[in-house]
Amino acid sequence: MDTSTRLPAEVRRARVAVAVLFFANAFAVANIVPRYPEIRDALGLSNSALGLAIAAIPTGALVAGLLAGVLSGRFGSGRVAVWSMVAAGLVLPLVPVASGWATLAAVLFTLGVVDAWADAASNAHGLRVQRRYGRSVLNSFHGVWSVGAVAGGAVCSALIGFGVPLSWHLPAVGLLIAVLVLAARPHLLPGPESSERDEESAAPVRSAPRTGWPVLRMVVLGCLLLAACAVEDIPSSWGAALLLDSYGAPAVLAGAVFVAFQAAMTVGRLLGDRITDRYGHVTVGRVGGVLITVPLALALPFDSVPVLIAAFACAGLGTATLFPSAVHAAGNIPGLRSEHGIAIVTWCSRLGFLTVPPLIGVLSDLLDLRVAVGTAIVFGLLVLLLSGALAGALAGRERR
């Protein structure tokens, strides 16, 4: 039976409000991604320099990301998520006014800081809502995030095709983001972060096993997310350049790889709660690793734009459930407060976003961009090998 029909209206409204936070977070960042080649050319940057500038986003997240747990514990995850997204809306319009590599990197660094706080806080509040529902809903929030990413990438690609300049585009996006999250704020859950976990811990079916060291389990989950986020970053940071530079695609298709990846990820996440309950997180994670490695290994050697887009769509489907599953695991480790566990594991995942852009940039300058993008195959193999970390770290319904 669907327990949501017996829930108070305030809990159902909170679910919608959290979904708005996830959508806004993804929509904001996705409106920059297809513009990377344009920004690179406008500032006269090499691929390596662009990669280092993009790496400022996860650098900011790594430097300040762990504060998200502290801030959420003190001020509440909902409040931190909302005001971090408002700050992101103020930072976005600064991208077009960057005069060189240093100023671009500084703006992206600041964006990385507020994005990390919004990401961790939104996930922490989403986990609170899931506990109130008494069933899995966290995948659906990440599905909405993917919808926001697809929408943002599609809108940005369309505006590029119509010749709309960045100086008009990003301020409008920033204003829209601020309006959305401020409208959602009154409907978020009140009370301390531990309210729902106390209730969840009392239910035997949802109690996490107490084997293993919390720190070791966090490290393993962090490594899994590092590999998954590395795969996710490649179409985000380099998909447009790959299509335009290596495949000769028209400018209107600049965001096609990114949009295809996010669209497939959206489908996977919207179906993720049901699929993982049926087949188990480990099995789904390992199948995801196969979906990442095999199609990309077959597509990259050939000069077919449709085949490449299809391969990245498979990769998006493969990575779909990894982040929600690992966040759930981190938020339910005995002896560790949810907001801190989620902040730590999302912080670890940012290492993938930090290392991949400069790695791809350097390899593309030394070798070839297509060869450099092939590192996604290696990360896919790591996902395949590390997905066993999801066994036993989740709630009692986990199946091997």
What would your notes on this structure say?
The structure is a single chain. The protein has 19 helices and no strands. Helix content is 75%, strand content 0%. By secondary structure, the chain is mostly helical.
Radius of gyration: 20 Å
Q: Characterize the overall form.
A: globular
Distance between the termini: 25 Å
Number of helices: 19
By DSSP, the count of extended strands is 0
Task: Look at the structure and give the mean pLDDT.
Answer: 82
**What share of residues are in beta strands?**
under 5%
SSE order, one letter for each helix or strand: HHHHHHHHHHHHHHHHHHH
Largest sheet, strands/sense/barrel: none
Overall helicity: over 70%
Structural class by helix and strand composition: mainly alpha
User: Which residues form runs of ≥5 with pLDDT under 50?
Assistant: 200-212, 393-400
